[in-house]
Amino acid sequence: MRATVMRTSMPEVRIQILDLELGEPLPRLEQIDRDGNAVFQVWLVIRLFDEPVGIERVLIPRDGVSPERLETTLRAAWSTTITDRGSLLGAAGAGILAVEPTSFRGNHECYLRTAAPASVVICTRDRPIDLARCVQSLVEQDHPQFTVWLVDSAPKTDATRSIADSFAGRLRLRYLHEPSPGLSRARNLALGHELDDIVAWIDDDEIADPTWLSELTRALELRGDASGVSGVVLPAELESAAQIWFEQFGGHSKGRGFIAADFSPDSRPRQDPLYPLPAFGVGANMAFRTGALRRLGGFDPALGAGTRTKGGEDTRMFTEILRRGGTMLYRPTAVTRHYHRRDLQALTAQMRGYGTGLTAYYTAMALSDPRVAMGLVRIAGRAAKDLLSDSSLRVATLEPDFPRELLHENRMGMLTGPFMYLRQRAENRALSRTRHR
Questions:
Q1: 19 and 62 co-located in one domain
Q2: What is the rounded distance in angstroms from the CA atom of residue 120 to the CA atom of residue 279?
Q3: What CATH code is carried by the domain that includes residue 219?
Q4: Which of 10, 30, 278, 422 sits CB 3.0–4.6 Å from 64 for a disulfide?
Q5: What is the pLDDT of residues 58-109, one digit of tens each?
C-alpha cells in the first residue's frame, strides 16, 4: 500500500472537542488539558439552550484563551444565529444568551411525555470495547421507552454476547446472532423480528448524545409523511493525524452542517436522489419507519461492510425511498459522535472502501432499473469531474498536509466497485443455494 510505505510516522496533533452552552458562563480554554496533553485547537460544539447549531474552531495560543476573548469571538460569529432563534445577547460574563428560546428545549421535553416506543439496532462484529461504549451511551438516553437489538455478525468469540449480558437490568436488550458476515444481512435479520414502528440505527464505534433517539423519533412524529430521518455525526475525538485527515475529507457528515432539511419529490430540482451523494443521510445515524424498510425488501445483501463492496447499503436505501416518492429528513439535533480510525493504515483501507462502496452502489441502482442507468449517463460527466479533479468541491476542504495518496486509494476503490458488487451477488446466490439443499 503506497500510503503506508511513504509515511512511516505522523505528526503529533491534538484537537479538543467541547460542547459549549451559550446560556452559561464561558470557560477559559487552556493549551494543556486535564491529562497533560497539548491542545493546539478546540472545536466548540455551539449549543443554544441544548440545541446544537454549529461548530466554532478556536486556535489556542500558549497562554490560552480567556472567557472575555472567547466571548468576543463568539459574539462576532454567532450574533446573527442567536437573533434568528429569538434569544437576546446577555451581559458580559453571564453567558452569551440572556433569554431562553422555547422552540427546542420546551418542545423536546413536551414530546417526551407522549413519545411512542422505539427500537434501536446495533450491528457489530468482534469489537467488544467499542460496543460497550456505544451501549453505555444508550443507557443514558432520555427516550422513555425503547428496545435495543444487538446483532452479532459472524462472531469469532462470545465477547459480544458477554457485553449484551452485562447490560441486563440496565436496558431492554435483545441479542441476535447472524452466522454470515455482511452489514446488510445483520440489518435484515433485525428487520425480521418484532421491531417497533420506528427503528433507529447506530454503529458500534459511536456514542449517542442523550437526546439522540428522542430527536430522531420526534422528527418522524412531526412529519407523518416522512419515511426516514438522519442526524449529524460529529467526531468523538481528534487526537491523531489520521482522524483529522478523515474530517478534512468530510467525515461522516460530509458538510451537511446544522441546518435541518427535507428531501422529497419537491426537492429534486436542488437535490437529485442519485447525485451528489449523500446530502440526505448517513448510515451511522438514521431512523426509519419499520414498515417502509420492509416494503422495500430490506437492505441489499450485496452491499455494506463485511462484504466485498465495503459499503453503500444505507445510501441505496435512502435513494430508493426518494425515487419511489418518499420523504427523507435531515435533523442535526440528533447527534452521534464517531471514533475515527486512528492510524494511517486503517484510514487508507477506509478510503479505498468508500470508493468501492460508492460505485458498487451505482452498479446496484443501474441493475435494478434501466431508467436509473439512463439517469447515470446524464450525470456521468459532472460526477467524473467532481470525483477525479483535484480542484473540485469534493476536495476543497483538504489542507496541504492531507496525503494525496489517500485520494488515489479512494479512486482505485471506485474502479473495483462494479466488479465487487457483481462478485458479491454471485457469492450470495451460491450461499443461498447451499443453504436450501
A1: yes
A2: 23
A3: 3.90.550.10
A4: 30
A5: 999 999 999 999 999 999 999 888 888 777 777 656 677 777 777 888 999 9
Range of the structural domain that residue 16 is part of: 10-84
Same domain flag for 58 and 141: no
Give the end of a domain, one of 324, 350, 376: 350
In sequence order, what DSSP letters do the residues of 290-333 get, joined into one string? HHHHHHTTSS-TTSSTTSTT-S-HHHHHHHHHHHTT--EEEEEE
C-alpha cell at 328: 427523507
Helices 404-435 and 344-368: angle between axes, nearest 10 degrees:
60
Average pLDDT over residues 280-285: 87
> What pTM value is reported for the model?
0.92
Residues 188 and 280 in one domain: yes
> Cβ contacts of residue 212 below 8 Å, gap of 6+?
141, 200, 202, 231, 285, 334, 335, 336
Q: Which three cell numbers stand for residue 322?
A: 426518494
- Assess whether 251 and 121 both reside in one domain: yes
**What does the alpha-carbon distance between residue 40 and residue 184 come to, in Å, rounded to a whole number?**
40
**How many CB atoms are closer than 10 A to CB 141?**
20
Percent of the chain, pLDDT > 90?
Answer: 71
- pLDDT on residue 409: 95
**Contact criterion met (CB below 8 Å) for 300 and 184:** yes
Q: What is the pLDDT of residue 373?
A: 82
**Element containing residue 48 per DSSP (H, E):** strand 41-48
Residue 419, all three cell numbers: 466488479
Q: 3-state secondary structure string, 171-229?
A: ECEEEEEECCCCHHHHHHHHHCCCCCCEEEEECCCEEECCCHHHHHHHHHHHCCCCCEE
Same domain for 123 and 45: no
Would you call 159 exposed, middle or buried from its count of C-beta atoms within 10 A (0-12, 13-18, 19+)?
middle
Asked if residue 197 and residue 148 are part of one domain, the reply reads yes
Residue 2 pLDDT grade (very low, low, confident, very high; cuts 50, 70, 90): very low
Statement to judge: residues 71 and 137 lie in one domain = no
Number of domains in the chain: 2
Alpha helices by DSSP H, 31-147:
67-84, 105-112, 128-139
